[in-house]
Each structure stands twice: as structure tokens, then as C-alpha cells.
Write a structure and sequence with these properties.
The chain has about 230 residues and is α+β, with helices and mostly antiparallel strands. The chain has two domains: about 1-80, no CATH class; about 100-230, Beta Barrel (Cathepsin D, subunit A, domain 1). It has helices at about 1-20, 30-55, 60-80, 85-95, 150-155, 215; strands spanning about 25, 30, 105, 110-115, 125-130, 135-140, 145-150, 165-170, 175-190, 190-200, 210, 220-225, 230.
Length: about 230
């Protein structure tokens, strides 16, 4: 039992060290690939040495334990090598369970891409960080600019006294009065934009804030599929 605990500890510590030193490419002077092989070999050597000390009486048991260690080591090494793929799968599952959750991936050319999955209502929704506030937004390519609910604007700390509702905009419910403003900085995953044009509608006139073309037109590409929207920085 003690050998089992020691072996698990060696594998766990080795895996943590590999993850922490992934960017540097080295662990304790060894490249990560060589260090990983060493971590896998240590528990196996421990079992072999223990089997020799115990003697031939328990050779069968030692071989079974060694096989278990090899299997555990293979699982851990596979998890480390494909951690990026597993993380991507996990994010996709969460995106399916939590509509509006943005998945961030890096494309082959190194640019950032955000993937959104269609919400239950049939639209693409997400949460955009404006300052320190996360604002739920509906993706609307028909809106010429970002349109903010009055309530969201208040949460962002905008002074209502500075809003001048002199602009007329078209909404799903007809014409409405809106106040123009400029958002200093907004963030959708890794995509950051500054000084983005927006409007604030009067209180009660908008059910959900809209992420319009004043933001979407700054993207290098926007690909819409049946249930997936890809936004590339």
C-alpha cells in the first residue's frame, strides 16, 4: 500500500511540474519530454526493486502491480499530451450546457477566435465585459451600432444626466429615442476594442442589449453556421 501511495505521489508531483514548466520547455535542467519519461519510469523502477526485495513468492503480485502502474502512467501522460484537446472538448460541452458562454481558440495563423453557440431562443448571445461590468448581449448584424439597455448603462456607471436622447433609432417595436455615447473599452474573450460607438435606449424600450456592427465590423471575419458563430480578431 505504501508503495502505491509513493508511486501516485511521484506521478502527481511530476505532472504538476510538467504543467507549470510547459512554457519554459525544461524541468530541472531536462527538456520536458525527457523529464516526463523519467517521471513515468520512477514508479515502475520502484515496483521492480520492491519485487526483487520481496522475492519470488510475490512475483505474480508484483507483476500485476507493475501493470497497473504502467496503465496509470499511460493515462497521465496521455492526459498531459492532449490536455489542450481535452480542454477544448470541455469548453464545447460547457458552451452547449450554458448558452452564451464564449469559447476561445487560437487559429493556425495565431489569431484569436471566439466561438458562440446558439441559445435556446434561436439567437446568438454572449456576455461582453465593459469596464468591470459583464453585459449580456444579443448578436445583431442588423444593428448599425451597439445598443445598450438603459438598465445596463446604469450598471456601467453612466451618469443619466449626461445622456441626451436626441437620436431616433428603429427597434423591433418601432421607433425609439436613443442617446449616443462612446464605450472606452470593451472585451469579448481575448478580443478587445476601444472607443466603440454605441447608443443607450430610454428605460424599458429594450429587452436585451445588442452587439451591433460598430463592434462586429472591426473583426477580421465572422462565420455563421447552423448553431455556431465564429468571431475572429
Amino acid at each position: 500500500m505504501m508503495r502505491f501511495v509513493i508511486g501516485i505521489a511521484i506521478l502527481a508531483i511530476g505532472l504538476v511540474i510538467l504543467v507549470m514548466n510547459h512554457d519554459s520547455g525544461q524541468s530541472f535542467g531536462l527538456d520536458n519530454e525527457a523529464f516526463g519519461r523519467l517521471v513515468v519510469a520512477l514508479p515502475i523502477l520502484l515496483m521492480i526493486s520492491a519485487g526483487i526485495l520481496v522475492g519470488r513468492r510475490n512475483l505474480g503480485q508484483s507483476l500485476r502491480q507493475m501493470a497497473i502502474w504502467v496503465l496509470i502512467a499511460l493515462v497521465l501522460v496521455t492526459g498531459y499530451l492532449y490536455r489542450g484537446d481535452f480542454r477544448s472538448v470541455g469548453e464545447r460541452v460547457l458552451a452547449g450546457l450554458i448558452p452564451g458562454r464564449a469559447i476561445t481558440v487560437t487559429t493556425a495563423d495565431g489569431s484569436a477566435e471566439v466561438i458562440l453557440h446558439k441559445a435556446l431562443g434561436g439567437h446568438f448571445e454572449t456576455r461582453v465585459e465593459i469596464g468591470t461590468v459583464a453585459v449580456p448581449m444579443l448578436i445583431d448584424t442588423g444593428a448599425s451600432s451597439i445598443a445598450l439597455r438603459y438598465e445596463d448603462a446604469m450598471r456601467m456607471g453612466i451618469d443619466p444626466g449626461e445622456l441626451s436622447f436626441t437620436r431616433t433609432v428603429l427597434t423591433a417595436n418601432g421607433r425609439a429615442s436613443a442617446a449616443a455615447l462612446r464605450i472606452p473599452e470593451m472585451r469579448l474573450g481575448p478580443i478587445v476594442r476601444t472607443n466603440v460607438d454605441a447608443v443607450v435606449l430610454e428605460e424599458g424600450l429594450l429587452d436585451q442589449s445588442l452587439l451591433g456592427m460598430s463592434f462586429l465590423s472591426t473583426l477580421s471575419s465572422m462565420q455563421m453556421q447552423t448553431d455556431e458563430l465564429r468571431l475572429r480578431d
